[in-house]
Amino acid sequence: MSLLHAVLGFVAIQPMTGYELGKAFSTTAAHFWPADQSQLYRTLHRAEADGLVESTTVEQATRPDRRLYTLLEPGREALEAWLASPLEPDNSREPFLLRLFFAASLGTSGVIELLDQRRSAAVELLTTLDALASSAPRKTSLAIQLQYATLESGRAHARAEITWLDELRAQLANHKESAR
Amino acid sequence: MSLLHAVLGFVAIQPMTGYELGKAFSTTAAHFWPADQSQLYRTLHRAEADGLVESTTVEQATRPDRRLYTLLEPGREALEAWLASPLEPDNSREPFLLRLFFAASLGTSGVIELLDQRRSAAVELLTTLDALASSAPRKTSLAIQLQYATLESGRAHARAEITWLDELRAQLANHKESAR
DNA sequence: TCCGAATATAGGACAAGTCCTATATGGCGT
DNA sequence: ACGCCATATAGGACTTGTCCTATATTCGGA
Questions:
Q1: Which of A30, B82, B140, B164 could pair covalently with A156 via S-S, beta carbons 3.0-4.6 A apart?
Q2: Which residue in B34, B103, B141 is closest to A83 by CB distance?
């Protein structure tokens, strides 16, 4: 349901085509809201059918025609209603934790390998986010500040993840040693 | 797809009924893997159809019959294969970040309210996890250690979330003040 | 010269998860 | 006395998201 709201949010900033929306997602929102291309276009169709947005076809000579989507008043209302609605309880899935939970049969050394793999991925994510953060624009408007804040959130959680992994790893390694 | 693996993981520890599985999820894995009751039973049916588990009906006088599921060899292999498979890239959705990203139209004070709501939820989660952690058994086996580690992960991330929220809140409040 | 990437939109098939309801009974609180 | 909760399993309807493919052209690199 939320992809619709994200679409409305982007279109509220500026009228866009589906393709541009895809770009906007992958460059600015990918780390907290991956958007499938197919799903994006379907959501746009539905939003238009529901009268939330309006599209105008822009013909192009060589490229396929572009459909430029504009936010309509009902769409803006839906967006504001979403922003003001109570926060839904957070029930996110953590595939890594699920695996770790059941990983005992890998043995201590196997689990440590798992932790190292996860650590690599977390470090990679963190460096990506660091790069994005350092190339971010000056925080002039509230909107820009908030967009930057989502980056900061990702960095904070990535750092927390790495710290947790290191502590767990040390604990397991230590335990293994003393068990010798 | 992962619910299947979680089911195999639990049944590997001990043969269980669907109902007991539901309990196991909600008491030990709820914070990183919510399991819908309907989905659970469907997954069990499929796992049995696929020859991964086997069920025996235990008749009861007053209560409905219980179907006790046992892990079969192919199921154990599937579980081990999953544990040894490469980590999938992490693409989790963060509805709160999505909302924050587009929340500028709420104004600084509206955003601060949003942050406060989120903070309350995070604090509540943290205290729940703290309680679970303090009532956790002694970390004797590797399995118990890993299960405890998932709790620690939740706590680490909850604390990171609270810290991030506090910093952002201070920054926004400060900005608002200096803009007067 | 050929292959892939970028531009631009769209549909089909499928997987996974959510929400609601149904069935049947016993115990507990108010 | 009445309703709700726990026990125990299951199906229907629906939403959301994923993966793959199709279409059509242009440009750049190996």
A1: B164
A2: B103
Which residues of B fall within a CB distance of 8 Å from A110? 83-84
Q: What are the pLDDT digits (tens) for B46-102?
A: 999 999 999 998 777 677 779 999 999 999 999 999 999 999 998 899 999 999 999
Closest by Cβ to B97, choosing from A118, A125, A153: A153
Residue B7 to residue A63: CA distance in whole angstroms:
49
Q: Is the pLDDT of residue B1 over 90?
A: no
- Asked if A101 and B9 touch (Cβ cutoff 8 Å), the reply is yes
Does domain A2-84 fall under CATH 1.10.10.10? My reply is yes
Nearest-angstrom CA–CA distance, A27 and A123: 19
Q: What is the dihedral of CA A67, A69, A74, A76, to 10 degrees?
A: 170
List residues bridging with B67 in a β-sheet: B57
State the Cα–Cα distance between residues A66 and A70, nearest whole angstrom.
13
How far separated are the first and last CA of chain A, in Å rounded? 53
DSSP assignment letter at A32: T
